[in-house]
Amino acid sequence: MAFVSRICATSRGSTIDAVGNGRYRVCDRDSHCAEVNGLWQAYETLRQQEQRPG
Questions:
Q1: Whole-model pTM above 0.85?
Q2: Distance between CA 53 and CA 41 in Å, rounded?
């Protein structure tokens, strides 16, 4: 099992976790997750998730 490291958690409940090999898991408060390559893409994905209405 790979070591997962929490990179950030926002006040809206979104998180970014490093999952290894330059990949990051981005989850919203409803646990809808996306796995992306690179920290920049992870932050962009998080930003888009948090701009969605809901």
A1: yes
A2: 21
Residue indicated by tokens 């992306």: 36
Long-range own/partner contacts, residues 41-46 (CB < 8 A, 24 or more apart): 42/7, 42/16, 43/16, 46/8, 46/10, 46/14, 46/16
For the chain, domain boundaries: 5-51
Distance linking the first and last C-alpha atoms of the chain: 34
Please say if the pLDDT value at position 1 is more than 80. no
The confidence score (pLDDT) of residue 11 equals 95
- Alpha carbon 36 to its chain's center: 8
As a whole number of angstroms, the longest Cα–Cα distance in the chain is 35
Confidence of residue 53 (pLDDT cuts 50, 70, 90): confident
